[in-house]
Amino acid sequence: MRITAISAAAALVVLTVSTGLMAQRPDDQIDPKSLALLQQARAAQAAGNLDGANDLLESALAVDPRNREAFVVLAEIARGTGLPGKAIRLYREALTLEPNDLAALRGQGEAMVAKGAVERAKENLAKIKTICNGACNDANTLAAAIAKGPPVTSTAQADEPDAAATAKP
Q1: Rounded to whole angstroms, how far apart are CA atoms 27 and 114?
Q2: What does the alpha-carbon distance between residue 96 and residue 102 come to, in Å, rounded to a whole number?
């Protein structure tokens, strides 16, 4: 009698676990609703409706948080609106899903340059060159951004005349 109860319990556990595993989708299959929202967001972005695109992308990620491309487009919007710190975080989310995503590595590197973290951007450039086995378009684009350097801010411009005025001839 005891063996029957234990066997029944074990069979129930095996049935429950196998059913749960069969219901899960593989990581490379993104929910079609999420992909449709991503396409709508791209259209809104192209039309200049960045707030609408942002909302659609957040909805796409709510439907399927494995939609790496939605993270990349959200990061591009953040970078375009002058939020490089937010862009870096969003690119990091995309790179968590796929560490070898060239677009995310390049975009994160460009956002790092905009934030002033040139050395970290150079690390991204080295990763891109390793993945590409040499030069590729993403590597060239990031290298150009690194060579250009971080943008000059209004604070830096305001500090320069003060330093020149206080310098003794």
Answers
A1: 33
A2: 13
Question: Could you give the angle at which helices 68-80 and 84-97 cross, rounded to 10 degrees?
Answer: 170
Please answer whether residues 38 and 60 qualify as being in contact, where contact means their C-beta atoms are separated by less than 8 angstroms: yes
Contact 95, 108 (CB under 8 A): yes
Tokens of 22: 């069969």
From the list 78, 79, 77, 68, the residue with the least C-alpha distance to 102 is 68
Beta carbons of 36 and 56 less than 8 angstroms apart:
no
Angle at 58 between CA 54 and CA 59, to 5 degrees: 115
Q: Determine if the pTM surpasses 0.85.
A: no
8 A C-beta contact, residue 105 and residue 127? yes
10-residue averages of pLDDT along the chain (169 residues): 63 55 55 92 91 92 92 92 91 92 91 89 88 82 86 57 49
Could you give the C-alpha distances from 102 to 34, 70, 122, in angstroms and in order? Answer: 22, 15, 14
Contacts (Cβ under 8 Å, ≥6 apart) of 89: none
Nearest residue to 104 (alpha-carbon basis) of 81, 144, 82, 131: 131
